[in-house]
Amino acid sequence: MSEAMDARNHAFATRNSHFTPDRVRRGCSRDKAYGMLQRVRTRGLIRAFGSVGGLSALALLSHGCAAARSEAPPAAAPAAVPPAAPAPRADSAHVRTRVSMRRVNFYVDSEVVLHIHHLDGTMRSKKGGPVIFDDKSSFIITIDTAEVGMTGADLSALLNKYVFGYKGSPLSHLHLRTEGDHVVQTGRMHKLATIPFEITATMDVTPEGLIRIHPTKTKIMGVNGAKLMKFLGLTLEKLLDLKGATGASVHGNDILLDPAKILPPPTIEGRVVSVHVDGNEVVQAFGKREPHAPVQALVPPDTTVRNYMYYKGGTLRFGRLLMLDAEMQITDLDPEEVFRFDLSRYNAQLVAGYERTLADGGLEVWMRDVDKLGSAAAVAAKPALPH
Questions:
Q1: What mean pLDDT is predicted for residues 35-52?
Q2: Residue 368, exposed/middle/buried by CB under 10 A (0-12, 13-18, 19+)?
Q3: Do residues 374 and 333 share a domain?
Q4: Which end of the chain is more exposed for a tag (fewer CB within 10 A), N or C?
């Protein structure tokens, strides 16, 4: 019986290299040692935890054997274990993502571009959860401060396709250009007949944050429209029915545009505090009229690049990737020009570039400018990575 027990002890200890026959026997009877090892094996500790489990089982075994021999002083307290790195916040999907942009041409449409000189604000999902880049109708960008320009071509496409691009619109074929500190808008007005017109106007902001286009000179069919309208007792408000327009209304002779409603997705919120003409751009400044506590500036990981979009906090989803407690800086492969980014084609821009993982788990991404996709001549050398 004793020889059979020795054989079983030796076979079991050989299969589990953490235990040798000597360790099994030391300080215990054979029967007791074998019984304790059987209990360890039955609980699955050795199979589940490998070497760590084996050492733990050995410690339990040694302790049990020692207790069987005599009372021993309590074991010394284990060494302190360094705290683990903090895990991503479980509720990060409900936290707004902070966003900062510099020198970015942000395409909301293939013909409508927001020329973002600088922008700081936040992003959030309309329904809660992550911000989904693949569904630009699902989230909102809230602007704290920004300076955003639009060229005459951008504004013309915006007015024709989105603001007045509905069936029965009284305005069509609109074209806008800048001229000094004014804007000049031409087009066709549909009122019983199709009437060509040209309006020279100033632009400012109402107390409610609407953009006001105020005509200073009007031509209708090539004649002085202001005098003609005054003679007939007409105003633009009487001539134009803008009930079907998106984000546009008319008051007297002034046309009012709501910046939060005239743009296609993504939804952009913010208070326009001023607007002015700068070269070929109409520039809108966003901010708050009321005094407020300054928000600490969002500093990107790579401060050497001039053109970038930086996202920090919250949860982002793009493609199959879900980024918790997000940190992602996106820049372009050609730092000498502004970064041209189209949310509808971001994946193609990403595939044409590359990325690297930062030490804290964030991402830095280099993308191809959207207008250079597929151009062999536009292939640039990979920039040197900052140390």
A1: 38
A2: buried
A3: yes
A4: C
> Which residue range(s) make up the domain with 360?
92-148+285-378
On whether residue 174 sits in a domain, the answer given is yes
* Beta pairing partners, 311: 99, 328
Joined tokens for residue 364 = 């830095």
Residue identified by tokens 């029915």 is 241
CA 158 to CA 340: how far, in whole Å?
Answer: 18
Number of domains in the chain: 3
Residues 43 and 21 in one domain: yes
The pTM (predicted TM-score) of the whole model is 0.73
Whether 67 has a pLDDT exceeding 70, the answer reads no
Q: Is the pLDDT higher at 185 or at 43?
A: 185
User: pLDDT at position 235, please?
Assistant: 80
